[in-house]
Design a protein that fits this description.
The protein is an alpha/beta fold. The protein is built from 7 helices and 9 strands; from the N terminus they run ααβαβαβαβααβββββ. It has one domain: Aspartate Aminotransferase, domain 2, CATH 3.40.640.10.
């Protein structure tokens, strides 16, 4: 941790470097956004806060459904319950921790307003398959508000706590995690692949 970072963090980190909820400095947020090839990033204190803010931004609430993987950390699911939507869990593929896309296709119905994929262990999910499913199911989507209308389909959200810096080839080009989904939540907690004194960041 350089002097500039420590000055910006101030009282958010104690003398023993115990992890505390903290805010990122403005320059660091810009650098993260640039690294992930996106134009906007926001630093929050937890994954639950990040994912819940993404859902609230889109106007998703009671009566709506949000789909996520059955294999995940609690934040992927608890953020949905926190905002008041109905949580729909989709099982993973055989011999994989990645969501079963065939089962996912059956779960995307009229009330499904977002899908939270979970990228694990440095492995980015197959978003080409996911976008084919969401685009194919557009006729089932009934937007509520301007942001939902702009997407014209269920929003693609990523819990990318364990994959900061990972990338995946899509349509022949390498894409950074952070520029693939509509919204991405990273974690810089000590147990993850890239840790700092911070917590979470939305892209």
């Amino acid at each position: 941790m350089n002097h500039k970072s420590k000055t910006e963090i101030g009282e958010d980190i104690d003398e023993e470097c115990t992890i505390q909820p903290a805010g990122c400095g403005e320059e660091e947020i810009k650098e993260i956004a640039q690294y992930c090839h996106t134009n906007k990033a926001v630093c929050l204190n937890s994954a639950t806060a990040c994912l819940a803010s993404i859902l609230r931004l889109q106007g998703i609430g009671p009566g709506d459904e949000v789909i996520t993987s059955a294999y995940t950390f609690t934040a992927s699911a608890s953020s949905v319950c926190y905002v008041g939507e109905k949580l729909v869990l989709v099982d993973v593929q055989k011999d994989s921790y990645e969501m079963d896309y065939e089962l996912l296709g059956n779960a995307v119905i009229e009330r499904a307003k977002a899908i939270i994929l979970v990228d694990l262990g440095g492995v980015v999910c197959d978003y080409e398959k996911l976008y084919k499913i969401t685009n194919r199911q557009k006729n089932k989507f009934h937007p509520n508000g301007l942001i939902q209308e702009a997407f014209g389909r269920g929003a693609v959200v990523t819990d990318a706590a364990y994959v900061f810096g990972a990338r995946r080839k899509m349509d022949g080009d390498w894409k950074m995690c952070g520029e693939i989904a509509d919204f991405t939540s990273f974690s810089f907690h000590a147990v993850n692949v890239f840790e700092t004194e911070r917590e979470r960041i939305d892209l």
